[in-house]
From TrEMBL:
Source organism per UniProt: Acrobeloides nanus
Origin superkingdom: Eukaryota
Keywords associated with the record: Signal
Protein name: C6 domain-containing protein
Signal peptide: 1-18
Phylogenetic lineage: Eukaryota, Metazoa, Ecdysozoa, Nematoda, Chromadorea
Length: 114
């Protein structure tokens, strides 16, 4: 029994540590008409470099990210005063965000405030 546990633990540890990062992760495209969005390269939860995006409402009220994939709206994220999100890059050359625990492919973003 102890030997089986050690083997399972070793397999799980190997799969967790074997995360492969893409060779490069570009900034996310910003759609035309967007309020200014800042992007900074950070280390994400997978220990890979990826863009972290931020938009601020200069008036301190609601602010929204609207994400698109190939021109179709796929997600939105809101905040009060500012909104932040992490963009992940896949080894298959696409970018994605996490929404309600699920990965959503994205190709551009816009920021707006009412």
């Amino acid at each position: 029994m102890a030997l089986q546990f050690v083997f399972v633990l070793a397999v799980v540890a190997k799969s967790v540590l074997a995360t492969t990062c893409p060779s490069s992760c570009p900034n996310l495209n910003i759609a035309s008409g967007s309020q200014p969005i800042t992007q900074a390269m950070t280390t994400n939860q997978y220990n890979c470099t990826s863009p972290h995006i931020k938009c601020v409402n200069p008036n301190g009220g609601s602010v929204y990210f609207v994400f698109y994939y190939n021109g179709t709206q796929v997600a939105s994220v809101s905040g009060n005063g500012a909104v932040f999100d992490a963009v992940n890059c896949s080894t298959e050359k696409y970018q994605w965000i996490t929404v309600n625990g699920a990965g959503v492919k994205v190709s551009s973003v816009t920021c707006s405030s009412p």
